[in-house]
Design a protein that fits this description.
Largest sheet: 6 strands, mixed
Order of helices and strands: HEEEHEHEEHEEE
Shape: globular
CATH class: Alpha Beta
Number of domains: 1
Number of helices: 4
Strand content: 25-35%
Radius of gyration: 15 Å
Number of strands: 9
């Protein structure tokens, strides 16, 4: 029998989205004195920044199982739905970063997304926060080894 994951919860999603954005903004402000702004397009990359007159984009995310994947498994994933978004930025030579924080917002792993990263082998997992069967609705991700991520305390 296929394992099911939890149901999608819009309130929980909104709360996590806000925490991810807040943590990424704090990271860039604290470490590089860069102010990130929310992207007006809620279906596009979360945040927009500018440094030395060069715009860049930051996707912010929260991972409740950060410790399991980053420390024990040794990787963090880029989901298929984000791979397409990141590729769009790289296709027009825009810089893109992926910031994943833990559930408390105290630790952030930051990845500079490159074409080499997006060309890494994909694996199939079921981490979607909706009720889905692994056998019926898997999702491909890139399991990016932690050596590509920079870990920060915020």
């Amino acid at each position: 029998m296929a394992k099911e994951t939890k149901s999608f919860d819009p309130k929980n999603h909104k709360k996590n989205d806000l925490l991810g954005r807040k943590t990424a903004k704090k990271l860039f402000s604290k470490n590089w004195n860069i102010t990130l702004e929310d992207n007006d397009d809620e279906y596009d990359t979360d945040l927009i920044g500018c440094h030395n007159n060069i715009s860049f984009f930051v996707e912010a995310s929260v991972l409740g199982s950060f410790r399991k994947y980053y420390y024990r498994e040794g990787w963090l994933g880029i989901y298929q739905r984000k791979i397409k978004r990141f590729q769009k930025h790289l296709d027009v030579n825009e810089k893109i970063y992926f910031a994943i924080c833990n559930a408390t917002g105290k630790k952030v792993a930051l990845l500079k997304v490159t074409q080499d990263i997006l060309n890494m082998e994909q694996i199939t997992v079921n981490h979607q926060p909706t009720v889905r069967s692994f056998d019926n609705n898997p999702e491909d991700i890139i399991a990016v080894p932690k050596k590509y991520w920079q870990l920060y305390e915020v």
